Amino acid sequence: MAVTVVVVSGPIGAGKTTLAQGLARRFGALHLHSKDLLRGHGGDGSRRARQDLSITRDRETGGRWLVEGVLAALPGRCLAVSSRANKMSRLITVDAVSSKAQLDGLRARPGLRVVHIHLEVPEPEQALRCAEPDTFETAWAHPAERAVHELASLAELVVDTAKVPPEAVLVRVASRLGLYGRTGERLVDLVIPGLHGDVDTRPLTAQLAPHYEVLLRMGVPDPVPLREELEDAFARGHRVLIESAGTMASVCLAATGIAPGRVRRIVMVCRSEGPTFNWVGLREAASINGPTDLALVLAGDLASTNWAARRFDQLTDAARHHLEELERVAGAPVSFLAPSAQARHLIERRPW
Asked: What are the TM regions of this chain, as residue ranges (predicted)?
């Protein structure tokens, strides 16, 4: 898997460093500043001296000095790791390129996926934003600075930062890079109490939790992560399990800020009490929540006659008939079964 290198270009004061810092803070990108790379070539002087040196090194190396500096600065793991979970560690931001030769050198390097972002800003705004205002006029008139404007036609994305605030620039760039993940990817499973709001969902949650990278337990202190944390999890392809405290899936999803399109499965936990079972309530709960699976806790006579069961085929005929009717009414299969309320392990009907 290629390392993604976000190459930022733009005039003085366009917000290049602000964007690079945002990618580093929000997505863990490695931020490489060209002026730091120039230090290895004697570029410790003023902005004008760095501009002169950049042109000299471009002429001497054909722009390859920048890609050589980038490769030297990369952690070894960036070139070796290939799993999707390490996607964020393979993101590099180069702040910034100032010539086509530098850009071409990066694009020509195998193993690098180069995405070029060009930021624009009107000259009056540049002067106000310049970090070194005393040298702005001299730096602005330098040939290296004038050549930067020509890079806009080579970029995958051009943003006028005078019209777009920094947080919006970051969102647009992150979206262009695919850092938010696919919005339609269903990575969320929800465990929700059905008929009885007091039914204990914790045994099922504990049994399922090892299959997930993220666990949210609603109704406990500070259960909801920041939206950014969830977006990062989705971008990495991490699966999320939510244990709801209430009986409505839509309310739980709204509280966590998760779109319904992210949901893969909804497991509704019910307690069965044989002849006194609330069939009307089950149908209403299924209609509201649309469960994909049911988890059933046997109670009453069904529990007393099936407490020793360890497989579905060990259930009594009465229990099996009850499960079949429950599935017809709810429109979902019973995928998990607790033979009694005291059972510590649920029987799985099929691998989760």
From this structure: none
In angstroms, what CA-CA distances link 63 with 59, 98, 109, 150? Answer: 7, 10, 12, 16
- Report if pTM > 0.70: no
Q: Which fold has domain 3-177?
A: Rossmann fold (3.40.50)
Task: Give bridge partners of residue 268 from the DSSP assignment.
Answer: 192, 294
CA distances from 147 to 48, 141, 160, 161 (A): 14, 10, 18, 19
How far apart (Å, rounded) are the C-alpha atoms in residues 86 and 91? 10
Same fold, 3-177 and 188-348: yes
- Above 70 in pLDDT, residue 89? no
Q: Please identify, in words, the CATH class of the domain defined by 188-348.
A: alpha beta
Note the Cα 137 to chain centre separation in Å: 42
Neighbours of 302 (CB within 10 A): 24
Considering only CA atoms, which of 316, 314, 247, 257 is closest in space to residue 286? 247
**Mean per-residue pLDDT over the chain, rounded:** 87
Helix (H) or strand (E) holding 235: helix 227-235
Helix/strand/coil for 349: coil
Q: What would the pLDDT profile of 151-179 be if each residue is shown by its tens digit?
A: 999 999 999 999 999 999 999 999 999 88
Three-state SS at 120 = strand
